[in-house]
From TrEMBL:
It comes from Vitis vinifera (Grape). This is Uncharacterized protein. It comes from the Eukaryota. Residues 1-65 are annotated as: Disordered. Residues 10-24 have a biased composition (Basic and acidic residues).
């Protein structure tokens, strides 16, 4: 009986593990075409860049000369 329970638990576990993997694949697939889309691509690149651009650009410009 214990073996049967182990098998029963392993089956749903494997299925549950496949779900997150499929989700990751879907997310990755969506991230790739997102780059091609000019609607989401700039949003993603604009958020992290402008935050580091002003401080890094200003500090690097006066530091260089």
């Amino acid at each position: 009986m214990r073996k049967s329970t182990s098998l029963s638990h392993k089956k749903p576990d494997q299925r549950r593990e496949e779900l997150p993997e499929n989700r990751k694949k879907l997310l990755r697939a969506h991230a790739i075409p997102s780059s091609s889309e000019p609607s989401q691509a700039p949003l993603f690149v604009d958020q992290p860049m402008p935050h580091q651009e002003p401080p890094t650009g200003e500090a690097a410009k006066p530091s260089f000369p």
